[in-house]
Task: inverse folding
């Protein structure tokens, strides 16, 4: 009887894992050097495969780079000394509807658009201190100098 109870408890726990991961918007796909994630006013070291969430802020070190794979297959690459914020991300994999807002405070950022912008060009926006870029199903890079 105890074995059966243990199996039922383990199955219940395993069923909650995908629900927890479903709240994430993507993962860290590549990481060179050191980077940190600022989440809920706490800094944690970034790790390969780590789940990312809306409102996360990510900062790379002086000789570091980081690659993000979002749920719609969009790819974001950060260069050294970069600081971005994943302000908003909503994506429905069935309808491919969604929207995303990413802010770059400083550093370099490259984006390859995913499925969301295939359906709705401009659904992914990258905000800089000087402009808002609406991604229309292509790839681009931007560099923002730190404020002095």
Result:
């Amino acid at each position: 009887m105890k074995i059966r109870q243990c199996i039922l408890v383990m199955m219940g726990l395993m069923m909650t894992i995908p629900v927890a991961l479903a709240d994430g918007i993507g993962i860290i796909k590549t990481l060179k050097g050191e980077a940190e994630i600022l989440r809920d006013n706490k800094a944690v070291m970034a790790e390969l495969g780590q789940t990312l969430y809306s409102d996360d802020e990510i900062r790379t070190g002086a000789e570091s780079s980081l690659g993000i794979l979002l749920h719609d297959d969009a790819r974001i690459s950060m260069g050294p000394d970069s600081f971005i914020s994943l302000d908003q991300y909503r994506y429905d994999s069935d309808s491919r509807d969604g929207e995303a807002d990413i802010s770059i405070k400083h550093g370099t950022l490259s984006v390859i658009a995913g499925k969301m912008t295939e359906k709705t060009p401009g659904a992914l926006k990258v905000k800089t201190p000087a402009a808002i870029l609406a991604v229309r199903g292509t790839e681009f890079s931007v560099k923002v100098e730190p404020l002095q």
